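Re: weekly structure request thread

Next one in the queue (417 aa):
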Amino acid sequence: MNNYYKGLAKYTHSKEMGFFKHNLKNDYQLFIIWQNGRSFENEIIEKVESNFEILSKIDLEWSKDKVVENFNRLYKAFDNPYISNKAETMGNGNLLCLMVKDNDPKYNYRKTVSGTIELVNTKAVKVKRESRALCSGYYVHSSASPEEFYEQAILLLGDAILKEVLNGNKKTLFLSQDLKGANGWKNFSDLFITLRYSSNYLVLRNFEFLPFDFFDNDKDVDILCKDVNDFISASNAKVIDINDGGAKLIVRVEDQDVPFDIRFVGDNYYNSNWAKDMLSQRIQSNNEVYRPRIDDYFFSLLYHSVLQKPKIKPVYIEVFDRVSKELEFDFFDIDKIYDKKYVASLLEGYFYFKGYSYTEPKDEGVYINYSVLKYIAKDLGGKNSKRISRLIKTITPRKVIDKIPLSIKTKVHSIIK
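Done, posted below.
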């Protein structure tokens, strides 16, 4: 468990054996028998025990006022009537959680109830389906992969108890607790320990102050993640706004509401390939916080500072100077940092090498610095054809735009495109 993080598991296929296997030393899974299925728990336990090694049986009680929220987080479904009704259909009383180990795991593709086709632990899925048939309902839940196990187990138990369970020290437990973070986080360290197992994320900027010195140095946290729902579920965030251009969240930490600005793969805040590379190359600080690799940090911060802001923040000048020296950039001249053509040439050179390009953010609230973008080659996203339309949107009040008929908007767009 000490070495695991979200994104670690990789799968390979064995033609000889006819199934997939992952690179992790152990394969853990969990089964949950909801209250309305517990009249069949002895039969279900017997079925689970005949297929897996049971590490712990945990009788878990949730607070009545947190049941719906706990279901929503566990299933990563927010404002979903189907999930919100689970407390009524599955029962809001004590659930029984079985933590198990599969000593002979086999992975293959299966179609889920929701219609998605996923690479799963076939034994776990088989036992879940048989258990549901036994109690004539969806009263049994299970994980089906290491990813699902860790992200759900860490929320259900917390890292300290989970470690005890996986070490074989807690055969039976009775717990009265909600999912981790249900009432906010006692500190940033507690939050980031949980995120390690639940979300493929990194902190884009000002990570130096996390997790111990945030409130004296920053006002919000800028995150890049692979899946925004993973992050929301794990952090128990309050969603202020979410769309295909990003998300604005509030996370309760140390009894304070902390704004989180979320960017994710596909929102064009960064080129999608660049965002994927940053996440796959991320590094972990000594304080449990994931940050960009140092070269990704330099160039992503330069991109943000000169293309997404009207001017470079003075606080970043020291960062560029320090990091460029650490990376031994003999081509970088800090004295030219305000030279727009010069900084554009740096980004151009990096884009050509990496196969990246400038992409116009789907979030229209992100500033576009055309005074720098005009120096970037068109095949790298420079001289954006939507420059005029974006300018019109910038200078025209929103109330006026909303009153313009759609037919006129379409015609104007076709002319200036």
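The longest strand covers residues 53-61. The first helix runs from residue 41 to 49.
Next request, please.
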